[in-house]
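Give me the fold.
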Amino acid sequence: MKNIPIGQHLIEKGLITEEQLQEILKKQKESDGKKKFGDVLLEQKYVTEDQFSEVLAERLNIPFVNLDNFELMPDIVKMIPEDAARKYNAIATHKIGRRLTVATSEPSDFYAMEDLRAITGCSISFNMASKGAVNRAIGKMYSAGQTDTIVEEATKQKEEELSLEELANEANERIDNAPIVKLATAIVENSFRKEATDIHIEPFKNYTRVRIRVNGDLIELMTISAALHVSLTTRFKILSGMNIAEKRVPQDGRMSQDVDGTHLDLRVSNLPTVHGEKIVIRILATGDVSLRKVTDLGMTDYNYKRFESCLKVPQGVLLVTGPTGSGKTTTLYAAIGEMAKPNVNVITVEDPVEKAVEGINQCQINDKAGMTFAAALRSILRQDPDIIMVGEMRDQETSEIAIRAAITGHMVLSTLHTNDAASTVTRLVDMGVAPYMVATSLIGIVAQRLTKVLCPECKKKVMSTPENNELMGIDHSIEIYEPVGCPSCNETGYKGRTAIHEILLSTPEMAQLITRAAKADEIEALAREQGCKLLRDNVSILVQEGKTSIDELVRVTYAI
């Protein structure tokens, strides 16, 4: 292989351009040697971690292994102790005789190789793997089987305890090592590793069930003894700053935890039920994770161009709509990331602030202190803003202030809970906003949903039936795919989610229709005439491309 710099090799591979390389080298120089070339490259998201690791492996002339799809053997993995595995970001993959093959993100580390040789008594050969994949594999393999032991320890300790107050008042040293503390930590860790968005800790008469939401569906993580429930909820209440003595009213709090090198921000909600307090933990996008770009939102090229045209308008209202958990906030943050420039003043008012974004002013709502959406918006208008993001238009007052701000020359981005783009207009009018104000200020509406993506490892090819064809809006049978289930996708048949979008643009004809308070059906008909592809059209394309299933098409877009 030619001995050329890694940057030139990436250009030859077609992964980056010469301009991008120069930008990376400039940013690396600005860091005064604190950042490696690879760190800056991955920060800019020009390539994925796996792509960079593959190129690096080729350059070092060693094999690359994708640990996310590799079946690791516990007996071999445990040959390297967990502390050494984490220290060197390395995990054992297979062993032949006295030779142990280890996957690592630092294959040039001679000291690591020597240390691992001394620890295992084997000769070591390194394979290349991405840092994130090694971290995930270490977390998964070394925690496997530990949770059951932790639950047993916690149950045993509970039997020995005289009272709950004893746990709450113990010395800090003992609390940090208590089995119930380990159990709370393990629940969050295991949930994050399974890519969950929410954790539900639900009390029943004889047991407590822990479920997690993965790809929009709740799956059971574990069941534990009912005797542990009070201690577990107390632990989460302490961590999230709630009042542990108050058990009769709902409470909210926040906490954070580091898992496999990632800092998690967790929103905790507590609700008294018949058998005890139910805890729901939302795993929020972390503050240190960079914003998604607009190009990463899963939009088709056609929808991306329509969305991009909305962002170029200097003033007006751009609304993102959909049910809870449909990715609205992610889309808003991506839009702000595109629009926020050094010469622009961007202010957001959110409940809660989900991502800390450098360079923009973010306000947190506090109803008890009188910091409502409407009050915050009034103050923001005196702060000389160019772009305002309102977390949600919840009432007439907030909606009117936001729309007046747009009419007076500001760019306003916000969300609403509606089923489609057309009904968003009628919802604003129903809330009490004058139709002429909506027509004057509106730039566009993005309605979206999240649909599950079929697992590429196990999806099964079938021919579409006449009923399927009708749902997809086609007149002949084609090859489509169905979910099956395999270890790679936790037997669900799906791996990850993508967004589908419906983008309505406020053209002069649309503005006239809105001004005369037209119904949603008329607005939708005109939107289709003007090129708006509905949610069902977009998910139908995904089914035909083999990315999702007919079941998902029905689940996401079914209407009576």
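The radius of gyration is 27 Å.
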